[in-house]
Amino acid sequence: MALSLQNRVLTVLLFALLSFKATSSSHHHHHHHHQGLKSLHFSLFQHETINRTGYIIVKGVAGPGVSQTTTPFGTLFAFQDPMTVTANRTSKLVGIAEGTSITSGLDGLRSISIAKITLRLKNHSGSISIVGGTHNIKPSDHPVVGGTGDFLFVQGYVTSSPVNLKGLTVTYKIEFHLYWPPYATHTSS
Ligand SMILES: *[C@@H]1O[C@H](CO)[C@@H](O)[C@H](O)[C@H]1NC(C)=O
Ligand SMILES: *[C@@H]1O[C@H](CO)[C@@H](O)[C@H](O)[C@H]1NC(C)=O
Ligand SMILES: *[C@@H]1O[C@H](CO)[C@@H](O)[C@H](O)[C@H]1NC(C)=O
Q1: In a domain, 157, yes or no
Q2: Looking at the predicted structure, is the pLDDT value of residue 1 above 60?
Q3: 36-74 pLDDT, tens per residue?
Q4: Cα of 75 to ligand 1 centre, how many Å?
Q5: Which of 136, 167, 162, 168 is nearest to 71 (CA)?
Q6: CB of 88 closer than 6 A to ligand 2?
Q7: Residue 32 phi/psi, 5° resolution?
Q8: Is the per-residue pLDDT at 8 higher than 60?
Q9: 29-34 contacts: CB < 8 A, separation 24 or more?
């Protein structure tokens, strides 16, 4: 009897916790002010030119063929793409995205991506590493797993959204939301 009551209380608590999480995550575009937490928010544009900055290394085995937006399941792709300050490829180059993606959706639209983004911004130089799922035609969030240089210990996420998928060069908008934990801001400035 006491145990089942405990279980019920636990269930209610868990449910409350889960619905709170769901509520707060649906509002993630509003910027909460993290008191005392150093953060940086900015956007860059990544340009990828097939057979010049990005190549299919291993052909996939199932699902749709290679098109502007799809690659067969299992395709291994590698890239070293320039990142500029506006959607115009000729705008100022401030970053390089190097990485790989493997098509993980049988629909040919989803992949798992790993990338190191080297940045040379006005006040911050270094790299951040990201990993996560990418959707070829929809915005995707990638967790930041860490960084080097001025981005040492950095956390947060980047959102990648397609801007232009037509032509030999495709462009993605990359929104960075970076947060330094307290122990990182004490060791670097
Ligand atoms: C890229 O190179 C591959 C292999 O040489 C070729 O099959 C493919 O047609 C090329 N793609 C484009 C868009 O030029
Ligand atoms: C991109 O920038 C160049 C150089 O500033 C300019 O000539 C060109 O028109 C721009 N392209 C677009 C699509 O705005
Ligand atoms: C860059 O650093 C300078 C001097 O330290 C500071 O005045 C400026 O506000 C900083 N700019 C940004 C965008 O953080």
Answers
A1: yes
A2: no
A3: 789 999 999 999 999 999 999 999 999 999 988 899 999
A4: 14
A5: 136
A6: yes
A7: -80, 145
A8: no
A9: 34/179
Is residue 2 situated within a structural domain?
Answer: no
Tell me how many domains the chain contains.
Answer: 1
- The domain of 176 spans 39-187
Is residue 11, in this structure, part of any structural domain at all?
Answer: no
What's 82's domain CATH number? 2.40.350.10
CB-ligand 3 contact for 26 (6 Å cutoff): no
Q: Which atom of ligand 3 lies closest to the CA of 121?
A: 13
Residue type, 163: V
Q: Is residue 23 part of a domain?
A: no
